[in-house]
Write a structure and sequence with these properties.
Elements (H helix, E strand, L loop, with lengths): L8 E7 L3 H16 L2 E3 L8 E6 L4 H12 L2 H6 L4 E6 H6 L1 H6 L5 E3 L7 H7 L6 E3 L4 H7 L11 E5 L1 E2 L10 H4 L4 E2 L2 H13 L4 E5 L7 E3 L5 E3 H8 L7 E5 L8 H9 L6 E3 L7 H6 L6 H14 L4 E8 L6 H14 L3 E6 L16 H24 L5 E9 L5 E5 L5 E5 L8 E9 L4 E5 L2
Parallel strand pairs: 1-2, 1-3, 3-4, 4-5, 5-6, 7-10, 10-13, 14-15, 15-16, 19-21
Antiparallel strand pairs: 8-9, 11-12, 17-18, 17-20, 18-19, 20-21
The structure holds S-adenosyl-L-homocysteine, iron/sulfur cluster and FE3-S4 cluster (F3S).
FE3-S4 cluster (F3S) binds next to helix 1 and helix 8.
């Protein structure tokens, strides 16, 4: 029998969910490339399809099944096609996925996708494989970057995985397991490889990235601010960011890093979820509104121009009109440069699951109102940048000939005309316009 790994094959990989899944997908592709697979953007070309899934809200999880449904034609045309589900839906549902969609050949969780190349060999003869162990450190030890590969200017680097916070609405502690921090030296070496082969900016990732406490070589625990200082010693690395942070782990030393470290970009994603203390308690968030506002005040003292971003959930069980107004008040108070907002989605297995729900039409109404307020603040933050000259990291070509797209220090995409030879450089751009989610400007030669 010819094994799947013996010929040049094509893999189609679709990614859902957060940046951690984007990082994982990049690693899956790299691992498969080392086994002779080539990535394809077309599912009908593929010998292997992998969906890297997200379980955070019901809609996200259901998308996976509707996508899988589309593949039955492909499988009847190409019986050798293998289909795998990876990521958080895989972790949460395991074997159930194959029961519900028998087209699926294998299921791997966020901590076991490094086994894909070897498990492919087991799939001959129609065997199915489910591997959803939690083995975070083993995963990272098995993922090696490709020396000599050309990396894009802006890269993600997962430094911490999992979560012990158990917010009452959230599946992450169940899908990603307990908080685990990668050792310092492993992160530094990965960052060095990335910068050696093209990266200029690295965004450190973790479900609770600011809870980072990895071991250094002398087995001493080090925090995120220490890690940032160590990373900033890498010459080729010009920009450092981190997402996502939890208010309870926002230490003074991390806040001061925004003042003391020039490579740390002025952007902080710090979700509050709700502006009502009562709802925050029901959410098991472990912080109240004034704790949060106090952190924002200190962060702004350390870095006055910082762009603050956040996440909100509307319509959490028990949220009254007054609770919701408090969320709007926080929004006005903070003046977010951007923010994500979601309707509460009950998730099986979480403690809020069975609680009496706010009617759908109220959730919808509140979401519209909140998003409107967020938009106003985003627009005024961006309008304040018009007329300024910002250092922009040029990342890729734009859709229009002669146009390139970069990123401002505050994370907005910036469109301008220039040669694509500038990709990978940081250049000064005079900002001339603010659009809803981007800026445009002129290259100052
Ligand atoms: N670790 C981060 C967030 C991870 S999940 C933190 O603690 O803030 C990303 C966002 O999804 C959350 O901030 C929250 O706003 C949203 N979210 C999580 N579970 C949700 C649910 N059940 N319904 C709606 N939104 C949810
Ligand atoms: Fe989910 Fe809360 Fe953990 Fe964030 S802190 S990942 S919202 S449980
Ligand atoms: Fe989704 Fe898992 Fe990320 S549930 S948001 S892909 S951690």
């Amino acid at each position: 029998m010819v094994g799947l790994l013996e010929e040049k094959k094509k893999v189609y990989l679709k990614t859902y969910g957060c940046q951690m899944n984007v990082y994982d997908s990049d690693r899956i592709i790299e691992q498969l490339a080392q086994k002779g697979f080539e990535a394809t953007p077309r599912e009908f070309d593929a010998d292997l399809i992998v969906l890297n899934t997200c379980h955070i809200r019901e809609k996200a999880a259901e998308k996976v099944y509707s996508e899988l449904g589309k593949y039955s034609n492909l499988k009847s045309k190409n019986p050798k096609l293998k289909i795998g589900v990876a990521g958080c839906v895989a972790q949460a549902e395991g074997n159930e996925i194959i029961k519900r969609q028998p087209l699926v050949d294998f299921v791997v969780g966020p901590q076991t996708y490094h086994t894909i190349p070897t498990l492919l060999e087991k799939l001959t003869n129609g065997q199915k494989v489910v591997d959803i162990e939690f083995s975070t450190q083993e995963k990272f030890e098995n993922l090696k970057l490709t020396e000599g590969k050309e990396y894009k200017p802006s890269q993600f680097l997962t430094v911490q995985e999992g979560c012990d916070k158990f917010c009452s609405f959230c599946v992450v502690p169940y899908t990603r397991g307990v908080e685990v921090s990668r050792p310092l030296s492993e992160i530094l070496s990965e960052a060095k490889t990335l910068t050696e082969y093209g990266a200029i900016e690295i965004t450190l990732l973790g479900q609770n990235v600011n809870a980072y406490n990895g071991l250094d070589d002398s087995k001493k625990r080090r925090d995120l601010s220490y890690l940032i200082h160590k990373l900033s010693e890498i010459d080729g690395l010009k920009r450092i960011r981190f997402v996502t942070s939890h208010p309870v782990d926002m230490t003074d030393s991390l806040i001061q890093t925004f003042r003391s470290n020039e490579k740390l970009m002025p952007y902080l994603h710090l979700p509050i979820q709700s502006g009502s203390d009562e709802i925050l308690k029901k959410m098991n968030r472990r912080h109240n509104v004034s704790d949060y506002l106090n952190i924002i005040k200190k962060v702004r003292e350390a870095r006055p121009d910082i762009a603050v971003s956040g996440d909100f959930i509307v319509g959490f069980p028990g949220e009254s009109d007054r609770d919701f107004e408090r969320t709007l008040e926080v929004c006005h108070n903070v003046g977010y440069a951007s923010a994500f907002s979601f309707k509460y989605s009950p998730r099986p297995g979480t403690t809020a699951f069975e609680k009496k729900e706010v009617p759908e039409y109220i959730k919808k109404e509140r979401l519209t109102v909140l998003q409107d307020v967020i938009r106003q603040h985003q627009s005024s933050f961006q309008k304040n940048l018009v007329g300024k000259t910002l250092p922009v990291l040029v990342e890729k070509k734009g859709r229009i000939e002669g146009q390139v797209i970069g990123k401002s220090p505050y994370l907005q995409p910036v469109f301008f005309s220039a040669a694509s030879a500038l990709i990978g450089k940081i250049v000064d751009i005079n900002i001339t316009r603010s659009e809803s989610n981007s800026l445009s400007g002129n290259f100052c030669e």
